[in-house]
Amino acid sequence: MSTHKVNSIGTICSSKEGTFIRLDPEFVPALKALDGFSHINVLWWFSDFDKEEFRSVLETEQPYKNAPQKMGIFATRSPIRPNPIALTAVEVIDIDYQKGAIQIAYIDANNNTPVLDLKPYTPSLDKVKNCSVPSWCSHWPESLEESANFAWEDEFNFY
């Protein structure tokens, strides 16, 4: 097993002013040339679910209303998993290179959530034209934009 340590590069900050990714000062130079990308992939830590008992959960009872009765955790987007790492594609509104802050439209992370890494969203690597999903979720929106108006609360068994 590796002894490498994963470190946060910043945090999610949500307030009345908006939602921001605020980088730690030493990582601000890594923002260079990020302008022009409309979206970025944010890898973040499900810090509210980082408990030893959650890391041993490998199966779950039907988290989605139309899903199979039992699912492996890797077939879900659950925060309860062996390594509580999340990935969210977000729209970039603005980048403040002096402050090391990226204003984003939305992220499904809580305030003060640790950010692990950022990668530019590039269709050549991130967009899949001919993907398929199981029938139980085939009615879900086909894009981030369509998801904004979708009744997600009707899909989950844990709301």
UniProtKB/TrEMBL annotation:
<keyword id="KW-0949">S-adenosyl-L-methionine</keyword>
<comment type="similarity">
    <text>Belongs to the tRNA methyltransferase O family.</text>
</comment>
<protein>
    <submittedName>
        <fullName>tRNA-Thr(GGU) m(6)t(6)A37 methyltransferase TsaA</fullName>
    </submittedName>
</protein>
<dbReference type="InterPro" id="IPR036413">
    <property type="entry name" value="YaeB-like_sf"/>
</dbReference>
<dbReference type="InterPro" id="IPR023370">
    <property type="entry name" value="TrmO-like_N"/>
</dbReference>
<keyword id="KW-0808">Transferase</keyword>
<dbReference type="InterPro" id="IPR040372">
    <property type="entry name" value="YaeB-like"/>
</dbReference>
<keyword id="KW-0489">Methyltransferase</keyword>
<dbReference type="Pfam" id="PF01980">
    <property type="entry name" value="TrmO_N"/>
</dbReference>
<dbReference type="InterPro" id="IPR036414">
    <property type="entry name" value="YaeB_N_sf"/>
</dbReference>
<dbReference type="GO" id="GO:0008168">
    <property type="term" value="F:methyltransferase activity"/>
</dbReference>
<feature type="domain" description="TsaA-like">
    <location>
        <begin position="6"/>
        <end position="130"/>
    </location>
</feature>
<dbReference type="GO" id="GO:0032259">
    <property type="term" value="P:methylation"/>
</dbReference>
